[in-house]
What does this fold into?
Amino acid sequence: MQLTDQLRTTTFLLTLRYMILFFLSVTILFIFISWSTTGYLEQETDATIRAEVNGLNEQFIQRGPQGLVRVIGMRVRNHPDSNMVYLIADADLNPMVGSINEWPALKSKPDGWVSFEVTEENGNSIAVRGRIFQPQPELFVIVGQKNTTLAQLTRLFDRTLFWGLTVTLALALTGGLLMSNNVLRRVGHFNSTSKRITDGDLSQRINTTGSGDEFDELANNLNAMMDQIESLMGNIQHISDNIAHDLRTPLTRLRNKLEDLRQDADSTETEEIDRCIEDADSLLATFASLLSIARIESGTYETALDPINLSQCVRDGYELYKALADEKLIDLSYDAPGAIEMRGDRNLLFQAITNLLDNAIKYTPTAGKVSIRLRCDPTHAVLSVMDSGPGIPADQREQVLQRFYRLDESRSEPGSGLGLSLVQAVMHRHGARLELDNNSPGLLVKIMFPLHEEQRARQPSPDLSGADHT
It folds into this structure.
């Protein structure tokens, strides 16, 4: 089972959607927690700075400028590792005493706060949030606090978010692949069983696991449907056999009686009897084609997919219709390699080939051309039948594959409108694709037979294809 198949399953895509939703939810939650924590720490920092400013202002009132300088100097000396930042400067911003050696480059904020950076002993820069107050006009004091705790907490949140989401993503992908693998296995069983049913084995049924889940319920419903279909197809087969016996036999008996009457009839009566025999033959042929199509499509036709030489089938069809083509002065030719081997039912394929040749010769005018060609590409054996007749309009090429459908221009010609329907049924039974195209002038019928790997290995190279035969 390929990974690309698993990635396209509904289960995996649904898991992926939930994973994205969870990813976004966790991200929003982390952002909210980080914002709330950061806001709380900033409020605590602001409260600490305000308290320090108020305390220093009281010291200035009590002790004057020199007393304030001594207080700040003591704090710096007694607490060298403190997160608090102090600096007293004169009117020209020249430092007098403090924990930093020069007046910093300040970034003012609308709320009266300032921010700046200081360089620590290890060379790292760290942000500081603070306030400036002037005890007197020629004296400036900065009181701030390093954002060390906030920076550490921010890095912790970033790492937690990254690894949390990474682990979540990995677990979600693993779970999605495991679930999609299970679903693909169940669906694969459904597909393989339905393929065998499509190929004509109506006895196939879908196995259940006994879990009672939705797949078991679907399998039980499909199995019940197939029981009903198999019963109905059995009834159709029974009715078809009865029709074959009750209608075809009397028609054959009628034709034989007409043959007997013809022997004793005069010339005028003979012509009438011949037309009646032709009508009876047409009815028998139509009836046989209908039964064949019904049995092929229903899967009740006993198809033997044996190794056959498709090139030989083409040659046999050519030889069978060569005389009829010569009678109409039609140039009939074939072009096929020495041997293209495939698995199929030779009788059905030969009938399909002769139907195509019969149609091509029937609708090609006198002195026209009909050719049948067989080629082999890397994956398919391609059979083409081309004529120089009137062709089929593009908007009616799908309709002519339906039973009894005939073009208005061809209603004067003998036939039942079942030829291409039978070809379509045979091709479907062999997994081949039938295409109708314009031959400019005339009709091009192309049939592509899929070749299995072992069959492709035995095919002749394209340059060894047979020469054209007329």
Notes: Confidence is low (pLDDT under 50) at residues 462-467. The CA atoms of residues 254 and 453 lie 51 Å apart.
